[in-house]
Amino acid sequence: MKKLLIVGMLWPEPTSSAAGSRMLQLIDVFLDWGFEVCFASAAQKTLHSEALSKRKIKETRIKINDASFDQFIENLQPTYVLFDRFIMEEQLGWRVREICPDAITVLDTEDLHFLRKARQEAKKQNINFKPNLLFTESAKREIASILRCDLSLLISEAEMRILMLHFNIKPTQLFYLPFLVNKDEIPQLSNLQSFSNRAHFLSIGNFLHPPNWDQVLYLKEQIWPLIKQELPDAELHIYGAYAKQKVEQLHNTKQGFLVKGRAENALEVIQNAKVLLAPLRFGAGLKGKLLDALLTGTPSITTSIGVEGMPGDLPWAGEIANTPNEIAKQAILLYKLEKRWNKAQRNAIDILEKRFSKNTFIRHFEAKLHYIEDSLAKHRQQHFFGQILQHNQLQSTKYMSLWIEEKNKPR
């Protein structure tokens, strides 16, 4: 039986973030293929961590900068090792390659961290984003990780283009695998909540993720006052995991700006809202909140960054706007005009069927992995830069890890 080891930065929390849901989607793919799956992480579990053992997945706590991982992976002998974000590959990839050199290494990028940081820096400096802002220390680290791995999973076609155009990454080392929606998850139009049965606006997102905190401030300070002036009876319900005091202090009943905290079931709260607001000013990857809006037939207002990678050439399930005045204007129109709202809801079904249907991608993904399995030596020769980056003289993370390990030994 083939074995998959997932090295997780965190234990998956599907009720807290899109990253948690995405990880469970990947796990289900490998389980469907008959793999034995082991999830290992050095992180502490929380009350909201998914109970992976219920899915017959082996859970293992590991230590970073500790030789115990070497013994663990030698005993496991995985066919594949999937790193949950580049930081985990950076810390443990060298150990995997030394102990299990024939294990196929896969990096799940989730999103390109250096792209999100570059956009955040542009917003901080109040300047237009330009490609030259991509060439940072963060980019060097993340792209080195991509080059070292046999395959990297990208959730957005836009990020694929950035890697190929600006960094000359070979497309044979990348694989586009967006959110995966089962056929039975795509709703029938007749089963969705109608325009007349919905009320109010909604914003949702994990507050540990900087773009989500920024979007709430943006709504509070610049957008919601414009909407409230036109729609005095409307409310904006703010949901998100890990809402700290700075978030809760924004709650204002008189303004209709209501901070609700964690949504135990995101789909339930979104399906009752008339319009979802996602005015993201920076970020990367695909946005889980917008996928949930599609799944519940909830029209949304978002930005060019928010919608990036979602509809392809299809019309969006709502409106796209990039200034406070335009965002507010489009939100008001969508909230008031039933025909426009119904068209956006129909677009949502079309996007789900044509852009995120699981069956469309899984066959190609399986074929790609089989090809790498059957020609691993050739595949690695074609991507020789990765082997160069594995050379001892360039393995600073390896030697830092060994130094920390030695330092931590009892004297």
TrEMBL record:
UniProt keyword annotations, A-Z: Transferase
Annotated organism of origin: Psychroflexus salis
Protein name (Swiss-Prot/TrEMBL): Glycosyl transferase
SUPFAM superfamilies: UDP-Glycosyltransferase/glycogen phosphorylase (SSF53756)
UniProt xrefs under Pfam families: Glyco_trans_1_4 (PF13692)
A molecular-function term among this protein's GO annotations: transferase activity
